[in-house]
């Protein structure tokens, strides 16, 4: 049977403090992106695609997944949804016809620009927020590092 000390140690651990702070941050950030009808992973994919397009002649799904630090199967589902919502274009690749190349379109670029502006404002506000609960979470994590 698990001891009370083990449970207390777990509840007071650095990882639990970090998890509480991350959960708060993620919940708040998700709320901000909901106004644009985007998720954080969708923004990651759009940003990775745009960044790769600046330097690569042709961008593939695998390249986007790697750049966004997302599992290729997850990236595939996100890319399919973004294409369906008319944020990106998919077309046959020049190097391999079986491979689909990707490009962010005008609609996707507008969404990405809005999302990046919203997230930049959110980041500034979140970390300077004077909410006592959030300040306590941040301080707890700092103290345990």
TrEMBL record:
Residues 1-145 form the HTH marR-type domain. It comes from the Bacteria. InterPro entries: HTH_MarR-typ, MarR/SlyA-like, WH-like_DNA-bd_sf, WH_DNA-bd_sf. Keywords: DNA-binding, Transcription, Transcription regulation. PANTHER family: TRANSCRIPTIONAL REGULATOR SLYA, TRANSCRIPTIONAL REGULATOR, MARR FAMILY. This is Winged helix-turn-helix transcriptional regulator.
């Amino acid at each position: 049977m698990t001891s009370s000390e083990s449970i207390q140690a777990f509840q007071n651990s650095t990882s639990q403090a970090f998890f509480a702070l991350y959960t708060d941050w993620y919940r708040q950030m998700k709320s901000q992106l909901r106004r644009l009808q985007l998720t954080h992973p969708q923004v990651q994919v759009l940003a990775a695609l745009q960044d790769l397009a600046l330097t690569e002649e042709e961008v593939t799904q695998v390249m986007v997944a790697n750049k966004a630090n997302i599992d290729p199967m997850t990236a595939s589902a996100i890319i399919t949804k973004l294409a369906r919502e008319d944020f990106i274009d998919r077309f046959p690749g020049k190097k391999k016809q079986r491979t689909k190349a990707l490009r962010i379109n005008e609609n996707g670029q507008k969404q990405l620009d809005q999302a990046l502006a919203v997230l930049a404002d959110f980041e500034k506000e979140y970390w300077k927020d004077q909410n006592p609960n959030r300040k306590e979470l941040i301080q707890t994590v700092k103290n345990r590092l």
